[in-house]
Amino acid sequence: MNTKRPLSPHLQIYKPQLTSVLSISHRITGVILSIFSILIPIFLLFLSLGADYYNLLLRIMDNFFIKVILAGTIFVVVYHLSNGIRHLFWDLGLGLSLRNSYISGYLVILISVVITIISVFYLN
After folding, report:
1. CA-CA-CA-CA dihedral for 108, 110, 113, 115, to nearest 10
2. CA-CA 20 to 30 A from 22: which of 46, 81, 112, 121?
3. Is 79 inside any structural domain?
4. Do the domain assignments include residue 50?
5. Which domain holds residue 23?
6. From the CB of residue 59, how many other CB atoms can be counted at a distance below 10 Å?
7. How confident is the model at residue 90, as a pLDDT?
8. E strand or H helix at 62, and its extent?
9. CA–CA gap between residue 3 and residue 107 (Å, rounded)
10. Looking at the predicted structure, is the pLDDT value of residue 13 above 80?
11. What is the pTM for the complete model shown?
């Protein structure tokens, strides 16, 4: 079957746009948050086992690599929350123009970075 119909373009042809990148990263951060939510009961278990385990948890949390992961987690939480609020405004029919969607997209990135930086400096 050799038809002369054109093939549909693939992802490699499209230039990444802010709206599409933020949409894909919103889904990725949702998956990351789902995976990291397993840590919450583990932390609570460590806290409930007594002072020795609490001190072990503090030593683990003092590791530089763990602090980098926590800073990334803070960014993921803030990004997912602020981009989710942006999507709620879109569901209400607000900010759907191309100009407003780019402004709100850059605002989501800015808010996420600023709150992450403030949180990292505050928690150190």
Report:
1. -80
2. 121
3. yes
4. yes
5. 18-123
6. 10
7. 96
8. none
9. 47
10. no
11. 0.84
